[in-house]
Amino acid sequence: MHLNLDSMIRKCNEHGYFRGESCPDCGESGRYVLDDEREERLGRFISGALRHFPDDVGLTMDEQGWVNMDLLCDIMDRRYKWATRERLISLIESDLKTRYEIKGSKIRARYGHSVNVELDYLETELPYLYYGVSQEEVDMLLDTGIAPMRQRYVHLSTSYGKAIESASVHTENPVVLEVDVDEAQNNGLHFMLVNDDIVLTDGVPPEYLSVVEIEE
Question: For this UniProt entry, which segments traverse the membrane (predicted)?
Fold first, then answer.
């Protein structure tokens, strides 16, 4: 089996879990915790369980998206004997995209849900947010607004660059829409900041959207 050292999860005694060959804070190689193949398998399972089909794997999810950590670990152990609690924690704490969070005896996904949840993050204080789309979608969204597609919430980006990065997964020449958050919040819309890059909202009406024009 080939091990990708760049994505392997290790633990530094001083700085905790990290991904790669050496701790980014001190350069120590640390202790092996999880290889890239198992990290990918565990990541897919956790994503499904916490975002898409908790009932199917035997989890009860509350309104804010939390499930019991002990029960999740028991379910993991039955599926993958190598999937220990430490390996789950290492996957979460080393994740630069901060997809998940642990609070006491509970765990949840921060974003990406297709199940119906009511997340409870604080309002963003950013005056503008961004949404990357294909050129073919621009006119339609400016006319109808942005609504969730296969997900519970619309996922907005906190910067122009992040919007380009997100949209580039789906289109070669993305266009970025700017969301007037201040005006939308003044009219009762809510925008939840879940991490440094992503803000969630129920939807964005067209009157708060404009195309970001880039000077050549």
Answer: none
Q: Which amino acid is at 156?
A: L
Residue type, 197: D
**Where do the domains of the chain lie, and which CATH numbers do they carry?**
9-109 (1.10.10.970), 128-211 (3.20.170.30)
pTM of the model: 0.91
With residue 106 as reference, give the H or E element that holds it.
strand 106-109
Q: Tens digit of pLDDT for each residue in 98-127?
A: 999 999 999 999 999 999 999 999 999 999
- Note the pLDDT tens digit of each residue in 131-150: 999 999 999 999 999 999 89
pLDDT of 46 higher than 90: yes
**Helices 85-93 and 69-79, axial angle in degrees (round to 10):** 110
Q: What is the dihedral of CA 90, 91, 96, 97, to 10 degrees?
A: -140
